[in-house]
């Protein structure tokens, strides 16, 4: 039995969240279903306008009932991340989720909006931190690394037990934060753990004899360098989170969903920031109070392309749900909280690593994305989920083999190729224009130029009318980015707040602008009937109604025509270079260089891939031309695009490996999850490619699975490993449960497919659009 919200109701007819005592305490942060759905529907209009595509991936893994803790990362888009996550979960899984929001943000429109969706405000120490009086240093970093002494300080008035000390950020890295254990006097405090690390020791001692592991090499010198005056710092009071945690516990114990961004705040870095302990406390605390509640943790990867830009793309990927082992819950209850929280954070970090693309800096990300494009021998535009998957695998491989001479040489070659592209101001996929003959290039250029001029006629009216909103949103978002950058110790350029402010400015200014245009139109009709073009019998109220339909329609038409026009405009420069004899040789030479580099990238991946992924060949996402099977082979399915282009083969991928499906049983160290569990499972959920079997919402049918298992010598292509083990009663029950859940999603799959066809979302994108990376001017800005 299912409810109207899409959540399954037990046979008793009672929802899990309603199965509580009638005398249970009132919720501290209640959620109203109709307010939640109404607000989300309105905000989805703005989200769909800002983003060109948002692909949900793996939504079938989300439990349809019972308590779920969603852990989302990276937090790259301030309040927009929350909107995208809530919208995706409501549409794909039928779940409503309460998100945690910073207490400092609960004001104005954001505060009102957070109350409509049942968000839980959380006070953060860094938000309450203030510059401390005087300076601090370590008097004896070797023998007493927990003692901090001040110069001109007054810790008795400023500090308190449970508060925090924050060191300034430096070299693009977040400063150390540490809890205060005891206040010894106006100039001395003791912290909970020893001060370690190269940068903190350098800041607190001024000594240069600190190795890369954060150890002092000169053991004879006990204190800081002579004449050292200490370092500035920030200090924050103790924040009691008891009510917040209890509200989360109650929501989860009642069968609801809670979402959290465990990095603690939004940022624009390319790597995953250290996770805060709150996510572990929420999971362990809930299970400590209700061990049998069935809490599951679902990792969510928020993967963006140009996250701060208008009409960008995103892939929201849901990982395999996992549970906290009972032994960690017992450790948490038996005053071994630090170990239990640490191991839980390792499990969450490992799960998140399987659904995100993390690189140490921006330059590395650009090299990885370039290598991914070079590794695509088909030359066809790959679906966005496969793009994300390839980026992830290449990032993992680079992290493991970055010191290998082959990788070092390949990195330099790819960077040089990128420099040549930047010099010519063209994109990688546009290099293929060099193989066209001169007459074809000329005809193509004039044909596209004609299309661009025609589209410009449809874009110009809306562009002129809506230009105040574009200008205001751009100026204000940049100003807010600078302010956020100045107030943060983790941001690089503050781009994580730009999308939020662009949407907020548009929401506030667009209605005002439309109303102004409508009033001017009504005034003109009232004065002279619009130069005599409007009949006398037309009432003024009808003019107002027509204006509120006409002006938004012009803007929307300009948006749609502008998208196509921008793609065409980007394709004109390489065509001009091919026509110009003085530069054609450069493009021809660059194309030859690209072919050599593509072969080099493919060879390196084919050599190192099997070492890293034992099932490399069976889970290959992009076919190897030298090993391509004959057409029609059952193991190389072909997927055709709507634009009638030639199909590209993609090898079917296996399901999740035990690394993710049994993550709760053997937690691994961070950044050591390198199994090919990151392969794309068949039963995925995407609104615009739902007809493709690889991305179907439900698992393959029995007949299809049996035929494939009979035709494969290695046990078939049905993802048994990622499903469960069928050698026990528990494993059989688990498989049966998942099959029932998958069958229930058949109706949802049909609904999504019909919506996709109606909206025209089956088109995967034009061939002339570069789907990833930033502008090359931004690419030169390194992660400081």
What's a concise summary of this model?
This protein has 784 residues and is α/β, with parallel strands linked by helices.
Description:
The longest helix is centred in the middle third of the chain and has 50 residues, at 438-487. Among the domains are: 33-124 and 240-353, Glycerol-3-phosphate (1)-acyltransferase (3-Layer(aba) Sandwich); 127-236, Elongation Factor Tu (Ef-tu), domain 3 (Beta Barrel); 436-579, no CATH class. Helix 7 (242-253) packs across helix 8 (278-289), helix 8 packs across helix 10 (337-353) and helix 15 packs across helix 16 (540-579). Strands 1-14-13-2-12-3-4 form a seven-stranded mixed sheet, sandwiched between helices. A seven-stranded antiparallel sheet has the order 5-11-8-9-10-7-6. The chain has a two-stranded antiparallel ribbon with strand order 15-16. The chain has helices at residues 33-50, 78-92, 108-116, 125-128, 155-158, 198-205, 242-253, 278-289, 326-333, 337-353, 362-374, 384-401, 405-424, 438-487, 498-532, 540-579, 581-612, 658-661, 702-710, 720-723, 729-744, 746-759, 776-779; strands at residues 51-57, 68-73, 97-102, 120-122, 130-131, 135-137, 147-151, 164-166, 177-185, 188-191, 234-236, 257-260, 296-305, 312-318, 638-639, 648-649. The model is unreliable at 1-24, 628-728 and 758-784 (pLDDT under 50). With 784 residues, the chain is of the alpha/beta class.
């Amino acid at each position: 039995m299912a409810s109207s919200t899409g959540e399954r109701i037990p046979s008793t007819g009672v929802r899990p969240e309603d199965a509580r005592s009638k005398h249970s305490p009132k919720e501290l942060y209640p959620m109203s279903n109709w307010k939640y759905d109404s607000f989300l529907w309105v905000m989805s209009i703005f989200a769909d306008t800002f983003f060109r595509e948002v692909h949900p991936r793996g939504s079938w893994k989300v439990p349809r009932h019972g308590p779920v803790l969603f852990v989302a990362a990276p937090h790259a888009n301030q309040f927009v991340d929350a909107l995208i996550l809530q919208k995706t979960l409501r549409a794909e899984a039928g779940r409503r989720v309460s998100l945690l929001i910073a207490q400092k943000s609960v004001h104005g429109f954001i505060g009102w909006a957070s109350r409509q969706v049942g968000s839980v405000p959380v006070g953060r120490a860094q938000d309450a931190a203030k510059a401390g009086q005087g300076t601090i240093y370590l008097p004896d970093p070797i023998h007493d690394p927990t003692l901090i002494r001040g110069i001109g300080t007054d810790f008795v008035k400023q500090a308190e037990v449970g508060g925090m000390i924050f060191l300034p950020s430096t070299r693009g890295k977040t400063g150390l934060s540490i809890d205060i254990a005891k206040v010894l006097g106006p100039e001395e405090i003791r912290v909970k753990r020893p001060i370690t690390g190269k940068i903190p020791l350098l800041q607190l001692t001024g000594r240069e004899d600190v190795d890369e592991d954060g150890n002092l090499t000169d053991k004879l010198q006990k204190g800081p360098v002579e004449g050292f005056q200490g370092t500035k710092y920030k200090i924050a009071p103790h924040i009691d989170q008891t009510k917040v945690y209890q509200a989360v516990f109650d929501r989860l114990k009642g069968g609801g969903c809670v979402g959290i961004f465990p990095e603690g705040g939004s940022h624009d870095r390319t790597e995953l920031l250290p996770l805060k302990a709150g996510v572990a406390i929420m999971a362990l605390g809930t299970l400590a109070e209700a061990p049998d509640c069935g809490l599951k943790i679902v990792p969510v990867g928020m993967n963006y392309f140009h996250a701060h830009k208008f009409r960008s793309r995103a892939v929201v990927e849901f990982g395999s749900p996992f549970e906290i082992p009972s032994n960690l819950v017992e450790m948490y209850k038996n005053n071994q909280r630090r170990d239990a929280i640490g191991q839980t954070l390792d499990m969450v970090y490992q799960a998140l690593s399987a659904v995100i693309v993390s690189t140490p800096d921006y330059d590395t990300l650009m090299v990885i994305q370039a290598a991914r494009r070079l590794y695509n021998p088909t030359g066809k535009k790959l679906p966005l989920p496969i793009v994300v998957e390839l980026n992830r695998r290449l990032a993992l491989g680079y992290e493991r083999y970055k010191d290998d001479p082959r990788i070092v040489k390949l990195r330099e070659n790819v960077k040089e190729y990128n420099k040549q592209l930047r010099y010519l101001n063209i994109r990688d996929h546009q290099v293929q224009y060099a193989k066209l003959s001169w007459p074809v290039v000329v005809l193509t250029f004039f044909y596209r130029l004609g299309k661009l001029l025609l589209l410009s006629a449809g874009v110009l009216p809306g562009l002129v009318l809506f230009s105040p909103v574009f200008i205001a949103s751009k100026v204000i978002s940049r100003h807010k980015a600078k302010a956020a950058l100045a107030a943060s110790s983790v941001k690089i350029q503050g781009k994580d707040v730009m999308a939020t402010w662009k949407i907020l400015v548009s929401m506030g200014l667009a209605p005002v602008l439309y109303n102004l245009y409508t009033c001017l139109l009504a005034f003109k009709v009232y004065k002279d009937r619009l130069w005599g073009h409007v009949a006398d019998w037309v009432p003024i109220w009808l003019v107002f109604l027509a204006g509120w339909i006409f002006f938004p329609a012009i803007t929307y038409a300009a948006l749609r025509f502008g998208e196509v026009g921008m793609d065409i405009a980007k394709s004109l420069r390489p065509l001009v270079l091919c026509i110009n004899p003085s530069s054609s040789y450069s493009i021809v030479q660059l194309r030859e260089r690209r072919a050599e580099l593509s072969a080099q990238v493919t060879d390196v991946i084919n050599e190192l891939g099997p070492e890293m992924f034992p099932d490399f060949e069976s889970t290959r996402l992009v076919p190897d031309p030298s090993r391509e099977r004959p057409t029609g082979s059952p193991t190389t399915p072909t997927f055709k695009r709507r634009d009638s282009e030639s199909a590209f083969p993609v090898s079917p991928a296996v399901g999740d490996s035990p690394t993710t499906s049994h993550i709760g049983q053997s937690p691994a160290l961070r950044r050591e999850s390198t199994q090919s569990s990151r392969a794309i499972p068949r039963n995925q959920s995407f609104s615009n490619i739902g007809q493709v079997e690889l991305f179907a919402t439900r698992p393959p049918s029995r007949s299809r699975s049996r035929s494939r298992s009979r035709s494969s010598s290695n046990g078939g292509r049905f993802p048994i490993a990622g499903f469960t083990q069928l050698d026990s009663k528990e494993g059989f029950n688990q498989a049966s449960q998942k099959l029932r859940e998958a069958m229930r999603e058949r109706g949802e799959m049909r609904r999504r497919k019909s919506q996709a066809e109606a909206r025209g979302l089956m088109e995967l994108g034009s061939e002339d659009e570069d789907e990833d990376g930033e502008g090359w001017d931004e690419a030169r800005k390194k992660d400081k």
